[in-house]
Amino acid sequence: MPPAPAFAKLAQLGHVPDWRQLDPYQRTITRQEFVRLLDHCYARKPDDYAGLIDLWPDRARIRRQSNHPGAGFYDFYFLTDRRKPVAIPRYWKTPWEFSAQPANTHRVLEGIHIVIDPGHIGGAWADAEQRYYKIGADTIPVQEGDLTLQTARFLERNLTALGAKVSLTRTTLEPVTDLRPADLIDEARTYLMQRNSLPSDALVKRTAERFFYVSSELRTRADLVNDRLKPDLVLCLHYNASPWRNPYRPAFRPENHLHLIVNGCYSRSEIEEDDTRLEMLLRLVQRTYYYELALADEIAKTMAHETRLPSMGYDGSNGKSVNDNPYVWARNLLANRKFLCPVVFFEPYCMNHREVHARVQAGAYRGLREFNGVYKKNIFQEYADSVTAGVVRYFRSVR
Ligand SMILES: [Zn+2]
After folding, report:
1. In angstroms, what is the span from residue 11 Cα to ligand 1's centroid?
2. Cys staple from 109: which of 13, 20, 60, 162, with CB 3.0 to 4.6 Å?
3. Cα(101) to centroid of ligand 1, in Å?
4. How far is the CA of 120 from the centre of ligand 1 (A)?
5. Strand partners, 330
6. What is the whole-number distance in angstroms between the Cα of residue 153 and the centre of ligand 1?
7. Predicted pLDDT at 265
8. Mean pLDDT over the full length of the chain
9. 361 CA distance to ligand 1 centroid (A)?
10. At a CB cut-off of 8 Å and minimum separation 6, what does 105 contact?
């Protein structure tokens, strides 16, 4: 047997997983459903988990450490007696567990706890997190983290008025994590040295910055969500951007579109990460997929209607279609993997489109204003209202 490698393969800033986290889910899912979810939603291609998750007649044999066979397997047994009612441990409630329609029909979201995650950080951090651009001398810079927070405020007001309990993962233009790039230099260097021999100081610095504004920031928000807030649903707000021709000389791009993301489409190298493999399986056994997809499907319809944006597709390599809705895609992102409850991730509007830029300049005006011959709400209100309408339609249909 080869000697144990010096390190386990883990996601950025990830930890060696504790496979006992799967213990409460033993014998709670049939082999057929387990395989269907794995193939249909979670694995990018059917053989992407071969050798990492082996399917036996009565169990899944899961490799504890992908790069070290000597670390052995975790045996996850399937449910065989379908008539036996099973309890699936999870901190969130399914729609069936909420009381039926509340007495006051205007408060259709009564009793539901929704977390809004305004994507990115914004403010003084927007340039460093590469969510910033400015075109024209006397214009307001476009910063994704500022736009998502402003949208979150409108959405919070809407959902609260409908009876939901609403929490935000951040309420300012400051990071939630206490760590800064300088604190993450050693971790960045170690991570790079495990993958290529001698990284340059510039690469270490760039990696530490990324560890800060992506990994550390999102992991801190995930701890807040999973350990303290424990919501029934997370809505991750983002604004999209089409690729720049030249990022140093920003110019408008013709694309402007909409898509929504549910968690799935893990590549082989992602499934090889021991912590990512466990996190994927926790989502699978909790059946988050069904709720996420049903919600995303409903919200995509109201958003497409209200924003009038066309859909955007992936080529199947980093995003995968899981139903017949052209607006809904499965992708494995840190945010939609780490929040351990149904998560809908939004990517409407391309910020570097001329009209979106004009609407950002117009700010949060009241009423309607004309853009290219069409009267429109301010962009934050339109975004928030279109999400709200879909959430309401979903809960009206299932409660
Ligand atoms: Zn974003």
Report:
1. 20
2. 162
3. 34
4. 6
5. 262, 320
6. 17
7. 97
8. 93
9. 19
10. none
What's the gap in Å between 236 CA and the centre of ligand 1? Answer: 9
pLDDT interval class at 2 (50, 70, 90)? low
Least confident of 86-100, 211-225, 271-285: 86-100
The matching CATH number, chosen from 3.40.50, 1.10.8, 3.40.630, 3.30.200, for 95-256+349-398 is: 3.40.630
Dist. CA 239 → ligand 1 center (Å): 6
Beta carbons of 67 and 83 less than 8 angstroms apart: no
* Residues constituting the chain: 399
Ordered by start, the domain boundaries in the chain are 95-256+349-398
Q: How far is the CA of 348 from the centre of ligand 1 (A)?
A: 10
Q: 262 CA distance to ligand 1 centroid (A)?
A: 15
